[in-house]
Design brief:
single chain, 9 helices, Serine Threonine Protein Phosphatase 5, Tetratricopeptide repeat, 184 residues
Protein backbone atom coordinates (compact mmCIF):
# COMPACT_ATOMS: atom_id res chain seq x y z
CA UNK A 1 0.00 0.00 0.00
CA UNK A 2 1.37 3.41 -0.98
CA UNK A 3 1.85 6.06 1.68
CA UNK A 4 -0.08 9.31 1.50
CA UNK A 5 3.14 11.12 0.60
CA UNK A 6 3.87 8.78 -2.33
CA UNK A 7 0.32 9.17 -3.61
CA UNK A 8 0.62 12.97 -3.49
CA UNK A 9 3.88 12.85 -5.43
CA UNK A 10 2.37 10.52 -8.02
CA UNK A 11 -0.57 12.87 -8.47
CA UNK A 12 1.84 15.80 -8.86
CA UNK A 13 3.84 13.99 -11.52
CA UNK A 14 0.69 13.02 -13.42
CA UNK A 15 -0.49 16.65 -13.34
CA UNK A 16 2.79 17.81 -14.86
CA UNK A 17 2.64 15.16 -17.60
CA UNK A 18 -0.94 16.11 -18.39
CA UNK A 19 -0.26 19.82 -18.62
CA UNK A 20 2.94 19.52 -20.58
CA UNK A 21 2.31 16.56 -22.83
CA UNK A 22 -1.16 15.14 -23.06
CA UNK A 23 -3.28 18.19 -23.70
CA UNK A 24 -1.40 19.38 -26.82
CA UNK A 25 -1.15 15.80 -28.15
CA UNK A 26 -4.80 15.00 -27.47
CA UNK A 27 -5.95 18.16 -29.22
CA UNK A 28 -4.08 17.42 -32.43
CA UNK A 29 -5.16 13.76 -32.32
CA UNK A 30 -8.81 14.79 -31.83
CA UNK A 31 -8.57 17.10 -34.84
CA UNK A 32 -7.12 14.30 -36.92
CA UNK A 33 -9.90 11.92 -35.85
CA UNK A 34 -12.57 14.53 -36.62
CA UNK A 35 -11.15 15.14 -40.11
CA UNK A 36 -11.14 11.40 -40.81
CA UNK A 37 -14.76 11.07 -39.65
CA UNK A 38 -15.73 14.08 -41.74
CA UNK A 39 -14.23 12.54 -44.86
CA UNK A 40 -16.32 9.41 -44.29
CA UNK A 41 -19.55 11.30 -43.46
CA UNK A 42 -19.40 15.04 -44.27
CA UNK A 43 -22.74 15.72 -42.57
CA UNK A 44 -21.63 14.19 -39.25
CA UNK A 45 -20.07 17.45 -38.04
CA UNK A 46 -21.30 21.04 -37.93
CA UNK A 47 -18.40 22.31 -40.01
CA UNK A 48 -19.89 20.40 -42.97
CA UNK A 49 -22.06 23.47 -43.47
CA UNK A 50 -19.00 25.65 -44.12
CA UNK A 51 -18.25 26.78 -47.62
CA UNK A 52 -15.53 24.67 -49.22
CA UNK A 53 -13.03 27.56 -49.25
CA UNK A 54 -13.70 28.29 -45.57
CA UNK A 55 -13.20 24.62 -44.74
CA UNK A 56 -9.88 24.54 -46.58
CA UNK A 57 -8.68 27.65 -44.72
CA UNK A 58 -9.83 26.11 -41.43
CA UNK A 59 -8.05 22.83 -42.14
CA UNK A 60 -4.81 24.62 -42.99
CA UNK A 61 -4.90 26.37 -39.63
CA UNK A 62 -5.78 23.26 -37.63
CA UNK A 63 -3.85 20.61 -39.54
CA UNK A 64 -1.41 19.72 -36.77
CA UNK A 65 -1.09 15.99 -37.17
CA UNK A 66 2.36 15.12 -35.96
CA UNK A 67 4.70 12.65 -37.60
CA UNK A 68 7.02 10.20 -35.91
CA UNK A 69 9.89 12.49 -36.95
CA UNK A 70 8.51 15.27 -34.76
CA UNK A 71 9.72 15.36 -31.14
CA UNK A 72 6.29 16.64 -30.06
CA UNK A 73 4.75 13.39 -31.29
CA UNK A 74 6.97 11.48 -28.86
CA UNK A 75 6.38 14.03 -26.08
CA UNK A 76 2.64 13.51 -26.38
CA UNK A 77 2.98 9.77 -26.54
CA UNK A 78 5.26 9.78 -23.51
CA UNK A 79 2.80 11.90 -21.59
CA UNK A 80 -0.03 9.52 -22.37
CA UNK A 81 2.02 6.50 -21.33
CA UNK A 82 3.08 8.21 -18.11
CA UNK A 83 -0.50 9.17 -17.27
CA UNK A 84 -1.55 5.56 -17.52
CA UNK A 85 1.36 4.40 -15.38
CA UNK A 86 3.43 2.83 -18.16
CA UNK A 87 6.72 4.45 -17.19
CA UNK A 88 8.88 2.15 -19.34
CA UNK A 89 7.02 3.21 -22.51
CA UNK A 90 7.07 6.84 -21.33
CA UNK A 91 10.84 6.67 -20.89
CA UNK A 92 11.27 5.26 -24.40
CA UNK A 93 9.08 8.00 -25.86
CA UNK A 94 10.83 10.85 -24.04
CA UNK A 95 14.21 9.39 -25.03
CA UNK A 96 13.07 9.37 -28.66
CA UNK A 97 11.99 13.03 -28.34
CA UNK A 98 15.46 13.87 -26.98
CA UNK A 99 17.11 11.87 -29.76
CA UNK A 100 15.23 13.95 -32.33
CA UNK A 101 15.80 17.23 -30.48
CA UNK A 102 18.69 17.07 -27.99
CA UNK A 103 17.99 20.68 -26.94
CA UNK A 104 14.42 19.90 -25.84
CA UNK A 105 14.56 20.67 -22.14
CA UNK A 106 10.92 19.70 -21.57
CA UNK A 107 11.76 16.24 -22.88
CA UNK A 108 14.70 16.03 -20.48
CA UNK A 109 12.52 17.13 -17.58
CA UNK A 110 9.71 14.72 -18.44
CA UNK A 111 12.20 11.90 -18.88
CA UNK A 112 13.48 12.69 -15.40
CA UNK A 113 9.95 12.57 -13.99
CA UNK A 114 9.34 9.22 -15.65
CA UNK A 115 12.54 7.83 -14.15
CA UNK A 116 11.44 9.16 -10.75
CA UNK A 117 8.09 7.41 -11.07
CA UNK A 118 10.06 4.26 -11.89
CA UNK A 119 12.15 4.67 -8.74
CA UNK A 120 15.43 5.45 -10.54
CA UNK A 121 16.19 8.70 -8.71
CA UNK A 122 19.79 9.08 -9.88
CA UNK A 123 18.79 9.02 -13.54
CA UNK A 124 15.77 11.20 -12.74
CA UNK A 125 17.94 13.86 -11.13
CA UNK A 126 20.43 13.72 -14.00
CA UNK A 127 17.76 14.65 -16.54
CA UNK A 128 15.94 17.10 -14.28
CA UNK A 129 19.23 18.82 -13.43
CA UNK A 130 19.91 19.16 -17.16
CA UNK A 131 16.56 20.93 -17.55
CA UNK A 132 17.22 23.16 -14.51
CA UNK A 133 20.69 24.09 -15.79
CA UNK A 134 19.17 25.18 -19.12
CA UNK A 135 16.23 27.02 -17.49
CA UNK A 136 17.29 27.95 -13.94
CA UNK A 137 14.34 30.33 -13.50
CA UNK A 138 11.73 27.66 -14.29
CA UNK A 139 9.88 27.07 -11.02
CA UNK A 140 8.26 23.86 -12.31
CA UNK A 141 11.64 22.29 -12.99
CA UNK A 142 12.96 23.32 -9.57
CA UNK A 143 9.82 22.08 -7.85
CA UNK A 144 10.09 18.76 -9.70
CA UNK A 145 13.71 18.45 -8.62
CA UNK A 146 12.64 19.06 -5.04
CA UNK A 147 10.06 16.30 -5.16
CA UNK A 148 12.56 13.84 -6.60
CA UNK A 149 14.99 14.72 -3.80
CA UNK A 150 12.19 14.04 -1.31
CA UNK A 151 11.50 10.68 -2.93
CA UNK A 152 15.20 9.89 -2.89
CA UNK A 153 15.35 10.58 0.85
CA UNK A 154 17.25 13.87 0.77
CA UNK A 155 14.97 16.44 2.45
CA UNK A 156 17.69 19.11 2.73
CA UNK A 157 18.25 19.27 -1.03
CA UNK A 158 14.50 19.00 -1.54
CA UNK A 159 13.85 22.05 0.61
CA UNK A 160 16.53 24.03 -1.24
CA UNK A 161 14.94 23.30 -4.62
CA UNK A 162 11.36 23.79 -3.47
CA UNK A 163 12.40 26.99 -1.66
CA UNK A 164 13.92 28.36 -4.88
CA UNK A 165 10.79 27.41 -6.80
CA UNK A 166 8.66 29.20 -4.19
CA UNK A 167 10.89 32.29 -4.40
CA UNK A 168 10.24 32.30 -8.17
CA UNK A 169 6.50 32.25 -7.45
CA UNK A 170 5.71 28.65 -8.32
CA UNK A 171 2.24 28.17 -6.82
CA UNK A 172 2.75 24.50 -5.95
CA UNK A 173 6.02 25.26 -4.19
CA UNK A 174 4.42 28.16 -2.31
CA UNK A 175 1.55 25.93 -1.22
CA UNK A 176 3.95 23.22 -0.10
CA UNK A 177 6.09 25.67 1.85
CA UNK A 178 2.99 27.10 3.52
CA UNK A 179 1.71 23.62 4.39
CA UNK A 180 4.92 22.62 6.15
CA UNK A 181 5.55 25.98 7.86
CA UNK A 182 3.45 25.09 10.92
CA UNK A 183 5.41 21.86 11.36
CA UNK A 184 8.82 23.51 11.31
Amino acid sequence: MKSSFTVKISVFLIMIFTAVCILPFSYSQAQSDTRAEHQQDPKAHPESEMAESDRQKHEKKTDQVLSENDPQYWMGKGGLYASYGNQEAAIKSFRKALELDPENIRAAFNLGLAYAENGDYDKALGFINKAVSRAPENGNYLYGRGWVHLLAGDPEKAMQAIGKAAALGNPDALEYMNSIAPRR
